[in-house]
Amino acid sequence: MKLFSQVADLHECLDGLRAQKKSVGLVPTMGYLHEGHLSLVERSNEENDVTVTTIFVNPLQFAEGEDLASYPSDLQSDTELCEKIGSDVLFIPSLQDMYPEPILTSVQVDDFTKRMEGESRPTHFAGVATVVAKLFNITGPCNAYFGEKDWQQLQVITKMVRDLSFRVCVIGCPIIRHRDGLALSSRNAYLTTDERQSATVLSRSLQKASDLIRAGETSSVDIQKLIEREVASEPLVELDYVETVDGSSLIPVDEIVPGTRILIAAAVGKARLIDNIDAFTGITGFSS
Amino acid sequence: MKLFSQVADLHECLDGLRAQKKSVGLVPTMGYLHEGHLSLVERSNEENDVTVTTIFVNPLQFAEGEDLASYPSDLQSDTELCEKIGSDVLFIPSLQDMYPEPILTSVQVDDFTKRMEGESRPTHFAGVATVVAKLFNITGPCNAYFGEKDWQQLQVITKMVRDLSFRVCVIGCPIIRHRDGLALSSRNAYLTTDERQSATVLSRSLQKASDLIRAGETSSVDIQKLIEREVASEPLVELDYVETVDGSSLIPVDEIVPGTRILIAAAVGKARLIDNIDAFTGITGFSS
């Protein structure tokens, strides 16, 4: 595995590979890698000649008071995991390399970013879209892999790519979960043992909702109420939102139909956790 | 010369040329080409293996009530001029090809876009930055040529390229002027004979300012007053702004120093005209 910290070195490497007609897969991450990230690298390995994994904790997507300073990090372990899973390149740029001067440019994706995460974190998606645009420009044409856990982010990036004509194919990959249903997240590291136990209510309530939907329930309001009740039963979990939306446009729906996605966010101790499911499919993708 | 209207066809052509290690120059325009545009194509021809000229009247950069509907167009003449000057590729995408679905993404460059043109045309530069980002993505790594007449635009694009790590080298090229000093502009077509005559006050006042500066004047306020008086002497010309700024950062300066740029904008009849000079160099670049 090649390890780069400078944009120029990554360019040189990828230019050489592209001259040999190698296809490039990109897995952008903020590090502290878990099986969810590794599933993206594996998928990229299957579908591309070369996989580039990037680790960059992007300050633009954290607001004042969020967990930028405490975001978990273990570059030693990340490097070993990337090597073991077969990432061809690991790119870990420094803050100075990514933002050598004050950045004044931002990429905004309206409508897609106003509600849900965008409402709770108003500057978050501009920070995400900006750094992802930058990583796409640095990497060049590629297939780019993102986890479906950040469903809204996945749709924001997909829309940005279409709107700005990036030569990038955005590929969403299934959420990977612990055996008890909790979606893997670097932020799970913040949870105490009790909080970790309580946090399973997120996936459990989504699964119950999906069970009801497959049994014939079509009312968004009723499904949201069900989930609110479930989550309220766990005093350590404070629901931020539960929404039923069209999975692509993220527009709220009154009636649940194929393509509807249910998204949820909650505070659990110091962690802000999100999860989502396809309304008719329910929970899938448990980790080994 | 190859003429393309579809993004996919341009991709295929440029991918083939890049595989042969050809360097690409890009000249993005809104058409109705004049010698100013052609000087960009010539410069690109000198510095690149292949020059791609694009013509697209980008609706995003026009506000309600501006001249989008009446913007002058002559694709027949433009095509002949591009062929004659030696552009290798002419790309004229349709509105449908550029914006096949409602665009929700915009690229914003703060600070650089708040004053001068940005104050008079608040949505203008987001429209410019967005379409230029799109054209850069469509074209891929290149040298991109822009006229210095749109000085603020040139700085906005330069900053966007640095901030978002586009693999593009932005090259500003000197303003081309009529013999009487008026900067070439597609919008000069809107001028009546009298207005055309009056419009020369813009370059004339800039030249007078530069003469004074080279004679020792360093006060921005005095230089601005001089230009305001000059322009006021032409009743057909209504000054929008005159500013003395650092040429790169666009931050206003009190004292004129090397690197200071003087920018001016005015309404002349139906036309909104802009011009600018390097404070110490004055007027250069007359057309043949």
**Structural domain count of chain A:** 2
The rough form of chain A would be described as globular
Rg of Cα set of chain A: 19 Å
Counted by DSSP, the helix tally of chain A is 10
Give the class-level CATH name of the largest domain in chain A: Alpha Beta
**In terms of quaternary structure, what is this?**
homodimer
Q: Bin the helical content of chain A.
A: 25-40%
Runs of chain A in which pLDDT lies below 50 for 5 or more consecutive residues are none
CATH architecture of the largest domain in chain A: 3-Layer(aba) Sandwich
Alpha-carbon distance between the termini of chain A?
A: 25 Å
Main structural class of chain A: alpha/beta
Strand order of the largest sheet of chain A: 1-4-3-2-6-7
Output the CATH homologous superfamily of the largest domain in chain A. Answer: HUPs
CATH domain fold name of the largest domain in chain A:
Rossmann fold
- Along the chain, the helix and strand elements of chain A come as EHEHEHEHEHHEHEHHHEEE
